[in-house]
Structures are given as C-alpha cells and as structure tokens.
Amino acid sequence: MAEDTVRRVDHSALRTNQAFIIGGLLLGFLLDIWPLVAFVSAVLIAGTLLPQAALFKRIYQHVLKPSGIVKPDVIEDNPEPHRFAQGLGGAFTLAATVALIAGLSVVGWVLAWVVIVLAALNLFAGFCAGCFVYYQLNRLGVPGFSAAPLGEQSHG
Amino acid sequence: MVERIAITVIVAAAVAGVVLACTLMQKRRAAAQAAGSRLLDGLRSDLPVIIYFWSEMCVPCKAVQTPALDRIEQDLAGCVQVVRVDAAVHTDEAKAWGVLTTPTTILLGPGGQQINNRVVRADELKTQLATISGEIGLCRS
Fold it and tell me: How many domains does chain A fold into?
C-alpha cells in the first residue's frame, strides 16, 4: 500500500522571506550600504544549507505567525525548488557583495536588483523563477533535482 | 540618493506593470477556460461530439461546412451531438478551444479527438467520427 507522502509548504513563510529580502536589499541600495546586501546574502545561504537557520522564516514562525500578523498558507508543494531558489538568491547577493566590496558598484547593484525584481515577481505575481529553473533541470534529468512538479508526479 | 530613489521608482513601476499584466492574463485565461468547458454542459458522455465554430462572414462555412453538418445530423441522428458556436460572438469559447479560423470542427470521442481547421465534407467527417468513437463504434441510424 502506498504511504501518504503529500508534502506541504507554508507559502506565508516564503512570502515573508521574500518581503525581508526585498526590504533589506532596497534599503541597502537607497542608503548605499553594502553590508546590508552581505547580511541578506548570509541569511539566504545559511537558510539554504540549514533550513532551521533561515532567519527571516524564523521571524515568521516565532513572531509574525503567533501574533496573527501573518496567517499561514499551507498548500501541497515541493520544498526543494523553493530552497533552490533561495540558494540562487544567496549566490546572486554574494556575487553582488563581492562586486560592491571590489568597487564595482554598478555590477554589484545590478545583481542586487536582479534578486529584488525576481523576489518581487514571486511575492506579488506568484512566479518563482528559481523554482522554474529547478523544474527544468528536473525535466532534463539532472542529478540532484529529483522533485517533479506536482501534476507530473507518478503515484504508485 | 535622489538618483537611487528615481531608479527604485522606475523599476518598481515596471515590475508593477508586469505583475498587473500577468494577473490580467491569468484572469482572462481562467474566464476563457470556464467558457470553453461550458460548451460541453448537458451533453451525453457516451456519444461523440462535434463542436463547430463558424462565423457570419465565413463563406465556406455557409456554402459547405454547415450543409455537411446538417447532413451528419440527419444521417447519424441520435449517434452524434453537434454544438454550433458563432466564433465572432462567443470569442471566449473560441479562444478556449484554440480556434483561430472558421470553419473549425473539433471532434471529441472516447477513442480520441480530431481538429479540422478547414472545410471537411460529410463523408470525411463520418470517417473521422468512426475513428474517434474507438471500441464503442459509431452507431448507425
């Protein structure tokens, strides 16, 4: 008999994460403070490598959700593509930080803006670019990208 | 600082435009899908269906396709269901079914489907109906 392997993801946690990413990077850009970009990068990379260490999601879990400021939105979904998207965001912001430290401010802020725009598209239009890339790699059979889109998963 | 605020406002406006366009497209697609599925409401699932998209300005529709479907309905009475849709009036339904030109006939049956973006005479329609009826077969009146 097949086990019930339905996986669920709280999309409110994801949206909170995106809002903090956008806010942190925008503030860094407006005030020209590269350490903010570095901070966001560190949070994203840490959260990708160790989900329990995702600071923005922990703020959601321990502050925003219990207080009722943000209501949970748990739906059937794969967590892997979102984690991959977070990792991509971390990589881009890390590259942005390196560029800003090296004095390449245009390159650095363009990279930061790429992350801001993609996070905004995810937050406001529901389009996750990183998830899209993940699923394309899954379709190509690339090792490590094993989670298929929900509608295409085979049930046995 | 002023330049950075200007850049932020411009990019924010561009993203807002994209989000708005995506939202409108999603709403239109959902409305079109709902309109498309309405064409099959009330039809029997055990009989093949011909959805016939025509328009007032379509001369081949009036001259050839409509008479062909009239003959199909007469010869195969009780064995096939024909739905006629004015594509110029019911644009949502036409869009939902991917109709780009008239006449278009879409045949649906248990053995498959057939899409014709051209005039199809009665005899050929009967052959196609037999094919899409699958193992059930097309009954004869």
Answer: 1
Residue (of A13, A130, A123) closest to A75 by Cα position: A13
The C-alpha of A48 sits at a distance from chain B's nearest C-alpha, in angstroms, of 26
Closest alpha carbon to B128 in B64, B55, B48: B48
Residue A154 lies in a domain: no
CA distance A106 to B99: 48
Question: Which structural domain range is residue B73 located in?
Answer: 49-132
Touching check for B8 and chain A: CB below 8 Å? yes
Scanning chain A, the segments in alpha helix (DSSP H) are 11-31, 34-49, 55-59, 65-67, 79-101, 105-125, 129-139
- Does residue B56 lie in a domain region? yes
List of chain B residues whose C-beta atoms are within 8 Å of the C-beta of residue A124: 15-16, 19
Q: What is the CATH number of the domain that holds B101?
A: 3.40.30.10
pTM of structure: 0.66
- The pLDDT tens digits of the residues spanning A94-135 come to 999 999 999 999 999 999 999 999 999 999 988 999 999 999
Q: Which of A45, A57, A56 is nearest to A97 (CA)?
A: A45
Query: Which site among B8, B10, B24 would you substitute to test the A interface, given the most A Cβ atoms closer than 10 Å to its Cβ?
Result: B8
Q: Which stretches of chain A sit within 8 Å of chain B by CB?
A: 26, 29-30, 32, 113, 116-117, 120-121, 124-125, 127
User: How many domains are there within chain B?
Assistant: 1
| Structural domain boundaries, residue A14 | 8-149
- The ipTM (two decimal places) reads 0.78
User: Is B75 contained in some domain?
Assistant: yes
Whether B63 is in a domain gets the answer: yes
Q: Is A53 inside any structural domain? A: yes
CA dihedral A90, A92, A94, A96 (to 10 degrees): -150
